[in-house]
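Re-run with default settings, no changes from the original entry. Doing this only to confirm the output is reproducible before filing.
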Amino acid sequence: SLKEQLHILGEAVAKEARARRSQATAATAFQLYALTHEPMRSHLTKRNAVAYRRMAKEVLKVIPAKDLPMSAEKFVRVLDAMITGLLFTYFQTPELITEDIFIAAFEALA
């Protein structure tokens, strides 16, 4: 089911958050650079647009469109935004953003 798949995704993102916490400063520095350098921000926008189209096609190979809470194109963007937000919030407050929070966030989309 979609909820089961999102549960697995939540577990995976939580695991990666723990593994990447030591890289939080570098990730934050990159975000700041992208926000303050228009050519980089524009490049990322173009690159992400291509990635989102590809990801939407891949999602539809696994999950029927009728089972998604929104179009696949929107769904992958929402997932990306959630992952980024959860990661950075976890980096700042790991005691508050526990694995069950990651899982609950993703399951809420089901």
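The radius of gyration is 15 Å. The chain has a mean pLDDT of 96.
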